Amino acid sequence: MTNKTAIVTGASRGIGRATALGLAADGFDIAAIAYNDAEALATLQAEVAQLGRRCLVFDHDIADLAALPAVLDAIEGQLGAIDCLVNNAGVSVLRRGDLLDVAEDSYDRCFEVNTRATFFLTQAVAKRMLACAAREEVHRSIVFVTSSNAQAASVERGEYCMSKTALHMAARLFAIRLAGEGIGAYEVQPGLILTEMTAPSKAKYDALIAQGMTVAPRWGMPADVARVIRTMAGGLLPYTVAQEVRVDGGLLLQRF
Fold this sequence. Notes:
single chain; Rossmann fold; 7 strands; seven-stranded parallel sheet; alpha/beta
């Protein structure tokens, strides 16, 4: 079996965890990155091992760019060349509220993690991919997990929307830069996905879903998003370049 390596950020829970397990089932060794979540990372590592794949775990804040080269060196040294990067890690706002009351700490946090850190991680991984000879049997890919809020404005979470809109553009830019090098860059836009992050709002959105907020009358699950990412990483969308794929149950469809 050909060795394949995937990095998944925000891998310990939710979409990231489902993606890491899905990619492991598809034959990828996993470099799982999450911050301050060692117990969940250890559990993920054991579950990946049960699937017959290797899993390195890193308790790493992707915003810590100074530590990034050492992390990537360890991944390449122990798992081999990087074939897939899933940019899933992200943060929400520190406080919801009036756009006129957005504070600098919440704004800076969203952009530091969701946009700046992800941009420079992608840049670093892309350079390493290009430094390694391509293998015909392995599709190389970079997947950006953005949000429905890259399209739909949520005034109570303005700084988050802005950071994800910037990441939407980053996906396009990297796709244009890397397509000619045989590296696919893709974007996934999740909608209402039931995770630990969204659980506190479950009752509110349960009611809205029942009233028709989404066409598919249910929450999305992490596995729904992971399935799309697996398709991208598997090279099954060879002529798709940067077009966002919405996993939102029809949330953003125009309806009359």
